[in-house]
Design brief:
Elements lengths: L1 E6 L4 E8 L3 E9 L1 H4 L7 H22 L9 E7 L3 H18 L3 E5 H7 L11 E6 L4 E8 L2 E6 L6 H12 L5 H9 L26 H8 L2 H4 L8 H27 L3 E5 L6 H8 L5 E3 L3 H4 L4 H11 L19 E2 L4
Parallel strand pairs: 1-4, 4-5, 6-9, 8-11, 9-10
Antiparallel strand pairs: 1-2, 2-3, 6-7, 7-8
Bound molecules: 5'-O-[(R)-(carboxyoxy)(hydroxy)phosphoryl]adenosine and zinc ion.
């Protein structure tokens, strides 16, 4: 079964052809980064306009690179939530129109479940496991029993982890998007240069939640308080110290979830799963099996959407052409534990 995937939830216009939920025949990602760079963040109106301009050529390119035509595809999968409303609507309307015109089955999928599916494109991963979904908009720790059966243990109570990388980078003028820039700078800095406090969310239903606004404030407004005077105040040292605390917050929640659930397999997804320090720290946990998608499948792409779409379509499930877009994540029920 060959599925065309379409992704336009934020600032990447993407289309991909995936066979049987696993074989990536093509994955085209047109990044809008240069158009948002001067604003140090994604401008929703620019994102929608660029998606409108690019969606058709990007979809055509995905077919051409897979050496197939529209007649060869068996279904169309598209992200319809969560994301920027105007941006989502471009991909969704495109996919619905194509499905209507060709009579092909159509399925609308959740972008965050897509991020979780990314690792399944490259690895055979048995369920259940713990999922770590970390992106610009979300930070979710969940128990995963099937591709569509997820129980959220914890989320962020304020900023998402990727958002914290982006905001720190913006404040210090390191560049955009912040995550990849801080990761690069941090390789040449010392994590010992500043000791930022970890959030203390241990009680009241927040046992698995994370928080980044305190860390962001400490790095941006109170850095003197936490700086180790034997280190120079360089971009590299700020990046390394911030990054160390940011990823250790995630690690502490993951390790708690491992202890409480007994699940020792961790699958990561989302842009922040590309972070080299997070990958290294999790790899050091010798009693855990930690699975990361390759770097290009961590950040937004349509292969993960086509792959996940296959899982629904192959069971005969389809979405109605009335399916709408939603900015919210939806369908993620928080159960917590402790
Ligand atoms: O999944 P994604 O491409 O888009 C969303 O669904 O949000 O994630 C983008 C986020 C941005 O906040 C970006 O700064 C962050 O992922 N990111 C990283 C790295 N690469 C991208 N954060 C930390 N380290 C990285 N290497
Ligand atoms: Zn994403």
């Amino acid at each position: 079964m060959i599925v065309l995937g379409i992704e336009s939830s934020c600032d990447e216009t993407a289309a991909a052809i995936v066979e049987n939920g696993r074989i990536i025949r093509s994955s085209v990602v047109a990044t809008q980064i240069p158009f948002h760079q001067m604003y140090n963040g994604v401008v929703p109106e620019i994102a929608s306009r660029k998606h409108t301009e690019w969606i058709l050529p990007v979809a055509r390119q995905s077919l051409a690179e897979a050496s197939i035509t529209l007649n060869d595809i068996d279904g169309i999968a598209v992200t319809n939530r969560p994301g920027l409303m105007g941006a989502l609507l471009v991909g969704l309307t495109f996919a619905k129109t194509l499905a209507w015109a060709t009579g092909k089955p159509f399925i609308a999928v959740n972008h965050m479940l897509g991020h979780l599916y990314a690792a399944h494109l490259e690895h055979d991963i048995p369920y259940p496991y713990l999922g770590l979904l970390v992106s610009g908009g979300h930070s979710i720790i969940c128990e995963v029993r099937a591709h569509d059966s997820i129980e959220v243990l914890g989320t962020t109570i304020d900023d998402a982890v990727g958002e914290a990388f982006d905001k720190v980078s913006k404040f210090y003028g390191f560049g955009y998007p912040g995550g990849a820039v801080i990761d690069r700078l941090a390789q040449h800095g010392s994590a010992e240069a500043a000791h930022f406090p970890m959030p203390s969310l241990h009680k009241g239903g927040h046992e698995y939640d994370v928080s980044y606004s305190g860390l962001k404030t400490a790095v941006i407004n109170q850095i003197d308080q936490f700086w180790n005077p034997s280190y120079e105040r360089t971009a590299e040292n700020i990046a390394a110290s911030f990054q160390e605390t940011a990823v250790k917050i995630l690690l502490s929640r993951v390790l708690k979830a491992v202890r409480d659930t007994g699940l020792k397999r961790i699958v990561a997804g989302g842009g922040v799963a590309a972070n080299s320090r997070l990958r290294a720290l999790l790899a050091e946990q010798s009693d855990l099996e930690c699975i990361f998608p390759s770097l290009k499948l961590c950040t937004d792409n349509a292969a993960m959407i086509a792959g996940l779409g296959y899982q629904y379509l192959s069971r005969g499930e389809q979405s109605s052409l009335d399916a709408n877009a939603s900015a919210r994540v939806e369908g993620f029920r928080k159960v917590g534990r402790g």
